[in-house]
Structures are given as C-alpha cells and as structure tokens.
C-alpha cells in the first residue's frame, strides 16, 4: 500500500489528501460541502481537497491528523 500524502496549504487554507500519485489527476468533482474529489482517468478517486479547512488558520501551530488502518 502506498503512503497517504496530507498537505495543508496555510495561505489557501486548504487540506489536500492523496491516496495515489497527484500526477494521475485527470478530473475534479465538487461535492457541495467545500470538498473537491480528485479522480484519475478511470474515474477512481485518488484524493480530495477540503476548502476553508480551519476557521482561524493564523492560529495553527500543529496540524493534528488521525489515521486508521483496517
């Protein structure tokens, strides 16, 4: 299993999570909940972007991430 990449953009206040190589991005689909799904050419979801991730991005000192493996 590949590593999951989590990237927080402080300036844009977005959180990007990649399940596969970002270079495979082919299309995006907005969900209406300030979440954008990123898909490859086969239509598989390879990541997502959460817009307006933090209410007060200037207060961020650490980015807490929880992960579960099943």
Number of helices: 0
> Sheet with the most strands?
5 strands, antiparallel
Structural class: mainly beta
Shape category: globular
Low-confidence stretches: none
Assigned CATH class? Alpha Beta
How many beta strands in the DSSP annotation? Answer: 5
Give, in order, the helices and strands.
Answer: EEEEE
Strand content: 35-45%
Main-sheet strand order equals: 1-2-5-4-3
Mean pLDDT: 85
Please give the radius of gyration in angstroms: 13 Å
Query: Which bin fits the share of residues in helices?
Result: under 10%
What is the total domain count?
1
- Report the CATH architecture: 2-Layer Sandwich
Q: In whole angstroms, how far apart are the ends?
A: 12 Å
In CATH, the topology is named: Enolase-like, domain 1
Oligomer: single chain
Which features does this protein show?
globular, Enolase-like, domain 1, five-stranded antiparallel β-sheet, mainly beta, 70 residues
Textual characterization of the structure:
There is one protein chain. The model has no long low-confidence stretch (mean pLDDT 85). The protein contains no helices and five strands. The relative contact order is 0.25. The protein has a single domain, classed as Enolase-like, domain 1, CATH 3.30.390. It has 70 residues and is mainly beta. The radius of gyration is 13 Å and the shape is globular.
